[in-house]
Prior knowledge:
- By secondary structure, this protein is mainly α.
- The protein contains one helix and two strands.
- Strands 1-2 form a two-stranded antiparallel sheet.
- The longest helix has 25 residues, at 28-52.
Amino acid sequence: MALRRCHDCSNDISTSARRCPHCGWITHWEVVNFFVGVPIITLFVGIYIVFFDL
Length: 54
Ligand SMILES: [Zn+2]
């Protein structure tokens, strides 16, 4: 498990931690996953609907 530095308080936090345990800052991966994951899921659902004519 790797450690990374909190952008807000500069303490070490786990890369798998969703929030900094020191200050509650949300790790950027959660934000990245949201903004990347939601469009990709929407895209795949859209393709599925178009191709299989549901
Ligand atoms: Zn912090």
